Amino acid sequence: MVTAIVLLEIERDKVNSVAEKLAGMNGISEVYSVAGRYDLAAIIRVKDNESLAELVTNRMLKILGIMKSETLVAFRVLSRHDLDTMFSIGMEV
């Protein structure tokens, strides 16, 4: 599985409509509105690099309102949540 984070700069009046379109696409698991240089961050989880390229270049970036993007490909995941869950088995939280 390939995981990527795509940071997106969106036209000011189209942030909500672009976010909704992205959230409805297969392969995009989450879309966050964020503060800072970018307006949205999309989390992508697909089976391979070809699927990632297809989703980003042929589908995502054709959405009107996206002005700029930066794609970050994840090498590995480290999650505090997963570690906490693993060590709390049998304990009430």
What are the key terms here?
single chain, 93 residues, alpha+beta, Alpha-Beta Plaits, 4-stranded antiparallel sheet, 3 helices, 4 strands
Please give a structural write-up.
The chain is α+β, with helices and mostly antiparallel strands and 93 residues long. It has one domain: Alpha-Beta Plaits, CATH 3.30.70. It is 30% helix and 32% strand. The chain contains three helices and four strands; from the N terminus they run E-H-E-E-H-E-H.
| Low-pLDDT residue spans | none
In the residues, how many domains can be counted? 1
The share of residues in extended strands comes to: 25-35%
Secondary-structure-derived class: alpha+beta
Main sheet? 4 strands, antiparallel
CATH class: Alpha Beta
Please name the CATH topology: Alpha-Beta Plaits
Shape: globular
Helix percentage range? 25-40%
* Order of neighbouring strands in the sheet with most strands: 2-3-1-4
Order of helices and strands: EHEEHEH
Number of helices: 3
Brief write-up:
With 93 residues, the protein is α+β, with helices and mostly antiparallel strands.
List the helices and strands and how they pair.
Blueprint: E1 2-10, H1 15-23, E2 28-33, E3 40-46, H2 49-59, E4 66-73, H3 80-87
Antiparallel strand pairs: 1-3, 1-4, 2-3
